[in-house]
Amino acid sequence: MVSVTAGEVGPITSGIVYCAVILECMQLFDLPRASEWTKALTAWCDAQHDLVPYRGQCLVHRSQLQQAAGDWPDAFMTVESACQCLTDPPHPALGLAYYQAAELHRLTGAFDEAQAEYRQANRNGYQPMPGLALLKLARGDLNAAAATIRRALTEAGNPLERPALLAAAVDIFRAIGDVSGVRTAADELAEIAASSTSQVLEAMAAQATGTVLLGEGDPSVALTHLRSAASAWHQLHMPYEGARTAVLLGLSCATLGDRTSAALEFHAAQDTFAALGARPDLDRLGSLIAGIGVLGEQQDTAGGEPSLSTREREVLAHVAAGRTNRDIATELVISQHTVGRHLENIFANLSVTSRQRPPRTPTNTTSSEQSTGCGRATNGAFTPWWGAHEMGRPGDVWASGELVPSHHQRGDDELAPQEEPTRPCKPPPSSIRRPLIG
User: Fold this and answer.
1) pLDDT recorded at residue 428
2) Domain end point (choices 281, 299, 317)
3) In the chain, N or C terminus with fewer CB closer than 10 Å?
């Protein structure tokens, strides 16, 4: 870097060295070093008249760094320029450029545009993973998301490809209730992080471990890992990842009965999602908050017991009777995904801190609910509704916090032939190119 910034090598050599270093840094999840090189090269290029600092693949990596730093409007513009530079003649990195554009569209809620860009990435030789699987998750197609990420993990033999896939697998398997899958993915991610010096991988692993511990009913230990991840994201200046961790911190605090701290975490996440324009995350968090009630007027009842909605009491009654999420969904004419969301709200409202027995039972339930709490009695033994025999069924116990999409949002057959974009890397709608205030 010193030789480049000191002008000891020519512009062409400097560009080649920069691209090589950035590529290596991105593959190793060394974002701080990649950012350092980018800042240094930008300052050096600013002093060189009539020099175009970034073209082609370097623009894609620059967009990735801008995205990580929370500068999503500039990341959109940068990747759009990359697509234009790489299209004529077609460059091997064009698929990566389309994938990066798709990721930004997915994060801002432009699902149709994301789907089109993932298709373009695939046609240009870049497998659109794990983004395509996460898009299916965001649209509520949990089975497709799980099948896609499992296939991608089976194929991924390159160790450098696995961390991003594993992090996505944690979110997807949690959503479908595959507890063993979540644990396996989190453990492998932790092993990879332990053999690396990357702060990003360490934060990813800590967040994944906290997620699985929270789902296994150990929120106190989960908080330790999640706090570590939150601290790392703050030091790395990665606001979106920090906000996602804040949501998990809020859920952990709410599960422990600390709604004051939960509200702080949820507020922080809300502000960040709104500023970034992360509409899907903002909507999911709003639904979660409404269910738990930590930010609203509906807190505990006068007797100090948790207040459940009418629908939550119905779900709880069916759970206490031993029915699975699939049975409940059929009985109440709702989706399994919605049942999972209700269970997550119930879990937090009851301040459950043990896998064996909740600390208290709400008074606004039926007598049958009070007799078994959040589980059912079998031959005198209490079995919690989040027991191991239930948690392996897709959608049964773990709630993902996702909103159930309307029929036009599902976007089935995402790789079926459709009309192509009229321009490379479709830009985002104007409403999401600027930060959102609320």
Assistant:
1) 57
2) 299
3) C
**pLDDT at residue 401 greater than cutoff 50:** no
* CATH code for the domain of 331: 1.10.10.10
- How would residue 93 be classed by pLDDT, with cut points 50, 70 and 90? very high
Total domains in the fold of the chain: 2
- 324-345 pLDDT, tens digit per residue, is 888 887 888 777 777 777 777 7
Residues with Cβ < 8 Å from 50, sequence gap 6 or more? none
* Section 91-120 average pLDDT: 97
Is 162 inside a domain boundary?
A: no
**Domain range for residue 375?**
308-405
